[in-house]
Every structure is written in C-alpha cells, then in structure tokens.
Design brief:
alpha+beta, about 450 residues, four-stranded antiparallel sheet, elongated, Outer membrane efflux proteins (OEP)
C-alpha cells in the first residue's frame, strides 16, 4: 500500500513538473520581456553595476577622509643585562627587567588647499557619471534587441508569404495538370508551373532557415540558451505606419542633448577633469594638520610605584600643529597641473565627439526614415498595381487565354513587389522606433 502511494505521489509530481516545463517552453516573448531578460543577464550591464557599487564606496570613503584618524598601540618589552661592579671591576650575575608602553594618537587635516572637499566632489561626480554610463549600456542592449526582434517578425511574415505562394501555386499546378490532360496546354506549360512550385518551396526553406537564424541571434543577444521552442509575440504593427510627421533632425537632437545618458556622462567627466586641475594646483599651497596623543608606560626598574601607579603618574598628553610648505618639488607640481589641463582638453574633445556622434546618428536616422517612407509609399503603389495586373493575368490564365510563361512572369513580379513592400514596411517601423529611442520614448511595440 505504501509503495502504491509513493508511486502515485511521484506520478503527480512528474505531471506538475511537466506542466511547468511546458509552460516555460510555450512562453511567448514580448519585446519588453526580451529587453528585461537581456538587461538582467547581460555581462556588460552587470559590470557597469559593479562599477557603480565601487564608485559608491569611493564616494563614502572620500566623505570619511574628512574625519580625524585615531590609532592605539601597546608594547611589552623584556630586557636582560649584567651589572658591572666598579669596586671589583667584574660583571655580576644577569638581571632582567620589563617595560610596558601604551599610546593613542589622532591626526586631522585642517587645511590642504580644499583638496579633501574637491575629492569629495569628484567622487560624487564619478558616482553619478557611472550611473549614466550604465544607462547608456542598457540603451545599447535595448536597441540591439529591438533590431533583432523586428528581424524575427520580418522573417515570420516572409515565411507566411512563402506559404501562401506555395498554396496558390499548388492550386494552379492542379489546374494545369487537368488542362494538360484535356489537351488544352502542353507538357512544357505544365512543367513550367511545376518548376515554379519547386522554386517557391526552396524559397520557403530559405525563409524558414533565416527565421531560425534570426531567433538564435535574438536569444544570443539576450544571453538566453538556444531553445527551439522560442517564440515571440506578433503585435499589430500597422498603427506604427500611420505616423505622418516629418522628422526634424535638429529638433530631435536638441531634445536628445538633454536626456541621453552618454551626453550627461561626457559632461560630468569634463567637470571631474576640471576639479583635478584645482587639486593639482592645491599642492602649491601649504598644508596644516593637527595632531594629538596620549601615552603612558611602566618599567620594572622604577622603584616605589606599582604597575597601576606608574601608568597613572606617567600619563603624557601631547598636542601639536604641523605645517608643510612646498618650496621646491623638482617641478612635479607644475607637471601635474599641466597633465591635469591636458586631461581637461581630452574630456572636452570627448564631450564634443559624443555630441557629434549623437548628431550624426540622429541625422542618419532621420534620413533613413525619409527614405523608408518614400520606399514604403512606392512599394504600396507598386504592390497595388502589380496585384491588379496579376488578378487580370490570373483570370486570363484560368480560361486559357495566357500561356504559363507570361503568367509566371507576372506572378514573379507580384512576389517581388510583396518582398519589397515587406522590407520597406519593417525598415520604416525600425526607423520610427529609433527616432522614438532618441526622443527618450521607451522601446515597445
């Protein structure tokens, strides 16, 4: 009875686990799911987060450097010696002694050209800069996922179109066979249709292979182990094609300057470099520090006082100021200032380069959208006219007024038009989403 219950329990557990496994395999990934998963797994994002944690520790340490230092020490010493008898001129037997020393010392910087406060500012800037860098890395991952995701959607539609063409050609082949058997068309005409069907099946195989490759690309971008059951959702993208605004590169660039993390990161790096110049110059100034200490000791050689009494009577407090004035430092301070100024120039150039790169990317994105809009409109018009022409050709072919060669030419034109329309459609969608990205709009479909 116990064995039966155990078997039933194991069977139920297996069913539950199978259900969970099936649910995991049948998950349909939305774009937001893919981006979120990628950000959670991406190594560069994790490294950026670790850098942010380091910067937080550096910032806390910079604040703590304002506080006085405090240290304590204790030492115990044992000594052995032979006493010298001046009357006999000989050394006596060995004697021993011991001593104990205790001390506490503290030191605090009173003035060093505001180096401490400037280092605190730099640490705070580096912390904020690191966060913007992390955001830039995440944005880069997101745009890569978006591109890969749209490629999968494009491949999906290519596969569906290829299947529809095969279905249509299969029906036409059946009709051609029937007409050949009736003597209406020749064997050559029939074989032309049959060859077209074989070509379309090859096209379908290529499209399915490309779809599989694009899925693998997305999974690799997500750092997700390749799973043959990986599927993405197919949102209705037609609403994205209804936008009619004319992209203004300058307007988008002005907006991006205020929100893009790479711009803020570059500006903070320049600010940090300027502070480093001030820190280098501070070495020209004197530095003043305050030190204080407290010590006491015990020695077995001291007579008339026990251990506690000696420690109490030998308490020696001390306090003092230390002033350091730089006079000649082998030109090191001047060199450090010059190097810091060069770093500022580099930071300024980096900021300018970052802005120029952003401007060029936005200009290119706007040009791509203008091109994609024109191509999409032209493809729609071409598709409509080609479809109308094909419908007429199809009717003529069905009633025997057109041979298979002319019919297949028109069908090839239709397939080409469908392919161009599909490509221009997804190029336009991607272009719109890229512009949204530069305007700070979250990546969604």
């Amino acid at each position: 009875m116990k064995t039966t219950q155990t078997s039933l329990l194991m069977a139920v557990m297996l069913m539950i686990l199978s259900g969970f496994s099936g649910m995991a395999q049948n998950k349909v990934w939305k774009l937001e799911d893919c981006i979120h998963y990628a950000l959670d797994k991406n190594i560069q994002v994790k490294k950026a987060d670790l850098t942010n944690h380091q910067n937080q520790l550096y910032s806390d340490q910079a604040q703590a450097n304002r506080l006085p230092s405090l240290s304590a020490s204790a030492s115990q010493n044992f000594n052995w010696y032979k006493g010298f008898d001046t009357a006999t001129g000989q050394y006596g037997s060995s004697n021993g002694s011991n001593s104990t020393n205790y001390s506490m010392n503290s030191n605090v910087t009173l003035f060093n050209g505001e180096k401490l406060s400037k280092k605190i500012k730099i640490a705070s800037i580096d912390l904020e800069s690191g966060k913007f860098y992390s955001e830039a890395v995440k944005e880069s991952v997101g745009i890569s996922i978006l591109n890969g995701y749209l490629q999968v959607l494009f491949s999906n539609e290519s596969v569906n179109n290829a299947k529809k063409q095969i279905e249509s050609t299969t029906q036409q082949l059946a009709l051609a066979k029937e007409r050949m058997e009736q003597g209406v068309i020749s064997l050559a005409d029939y074989l032309q249709i049959k060859s077209e069907l074989a070509t379309e099946k090859s096209t379908l195989a290529t499209a399915e292979s490309q779809l599989a490759i694009n899925k693998v690309t997305v999974m690799q971008l997500m750092d997700l182990p390749v799973d043959k059951n990986f599927e993405i959702s197919s949102p209705n993208l037609d609403s994205l094609l209804l936008k009619t605004y004319q992209p203004d590169a300058q307007e988008i660039y002005n907006l991006a300057l205020g929100i893009k993390p790479q711009i803020k990161n570059a500006a903070l790096n320049k600010q940090s470099a300027n502070l480093n110049v001030e820190i280098a110059r501070a070495d020209y100034l004197p530095s003043l520090s305050l030190g204080a200490g407290l010590s006491s000791s015990y020695s077995s050689l001291t007579t008339g006082a026990d251990y506690t009494a000696q420690l109490k009577n030998k308490v020696n407090p001390a306090i003092g100021f230390s002033l350091s004035i730089p006079i000649f430092q082998k030109n090191q301070i001047r060199t450090n200032v010059s190097l810091a100024k060069i770093a500022v120039s580099n930071a300024e150039l980096d900021e300018l380069n970052t802005k120029n790169t952003l401007r060029k990317e936005i200009e290119q994105a706007c040009a791509d959208v203008d091109k994609a809009k024109s191509e999409y409109a032209a493809s729609q018009e071409q598709m409509q006219s080609t479809k109308e022409s094909y419908d007429v050709t199809d009717e003529k072919y069905k009633v025997g007024l057109l041979n298979s060669v002319d019919f297949l030419v028109q069908k090839t034109n239709l397939i080409t038009s469908e392919s161009k329309l599909l490509q221009s459609k997804f190029s336009l969608i991607f272009g719109y989403k890229v512009l949204d990205f530069y305007k700070g709009i979250p990546l969604t479909l």
